[in-house]
Write a structure and sequence with these properties.
L-fuculose-1-phosphate Aldolase, 8 helices, 7 strands
Length: about 230
């Protein structure tokens, strides 16, 4: 089981490169095996072009090394905090993709301006607060996770599969590592679209709620009808 999750996590990390979501080593993806209580994550600072599946690092839910010769990503405590608090997710991704980072650094959430956004996020992409000085000094990566959880106190993590950490950048998640990466790609695309909308019309209004709900629910709701249920 661990071997298959390492392969899945390795591929998902390479997909960050494939989709143009990372520069140098600015990103990471993890996956969790909840039955075993193990998390697999990219090693810290390793070039994607040189990375191999066997380089993926396996840790337990306390961050203790279980398997691997390399140090895990420095963002591991953030990933672990998300897994502990969002029990339905199976993968987490973090990037410094340009347009999502611009919104994070401008401390602006991403409004839902259109149906592309509504197909994937049931509302605006939320923004956390800045970490306080003592939170940075006493556990920066852990407290990054804490402020994300704080922001999601009244949100559904599966309906809103991503967040902007103020001054930092985006974290996304999903049912699997691949799903988390797909949500990173979607987040970057809708961030770029939102930026463009504001250039064209700085008084643009968000999509009416009834259209947003229709588009989200036709793909993800109880009576979703988008796509093919049974193929072959």
């Amino acid at each position: 089981m661990v071997k298959s999750i390492k392969e899945e996590t390795f591929k998902a990390n390479l997909d960050l490169v494939k989709y143009g979501l990372v520069t140098l080593t600015w990103g990471n993806v993890s996956a969790i095996d909840r039955s075993e209580g193990l998390v697999v994550i990219k090693p810290s600072g390793v070039d994607y072009a040189q990375m191999k599946a066997e380089d993926m690092v396996v840790v337990d839910m306390q961050g203790r090394l279980v398997e691997g010769k390399l140090k895990p990503s420095s963002d591991l405590p953030t990933h672990l905090e998300l897994y502990k608090n969002f029990p339905d997710i199976g993968g987490v991704a973090h990037t410094h993709s340009e347009f999502a980072c611009m919104f994070a650094q401008a401390c602006k959430e991403i409004p839902c301006y259109g149906t592309t956004h509504a197909d994937h996020f049931n509302g605006p992409v939320p923004l956390t607060r800045f970490l306080k000085e003592d939170e940075v000094n006493t556990g920066y990566e852990l407290n990054t996770g804490v402020v994300i959880i704080e922001r999601f106190m009244n949100l559904n993590a599966l309906e809103t599969p991503g967040v902007l950490v103020a001054g930092h950048g985006p974290f996304t998640w999903g049912k699997s590592a691949a799903d988390a990466v797909n949500n990173s790609l979607v987040l970057e695309k809708i961030a770029k679209m939102a930026w463009g909308v504001r250039q064209l019309n700085d008084e643009a209004k968000p999509l009416p709620d009834y259209i947003l709900k229709k588009h989200y629910e036709r793909k993800h709701g109880k009576h979703a009808y988008y796509g093919q249920k049974n193929r072959g």
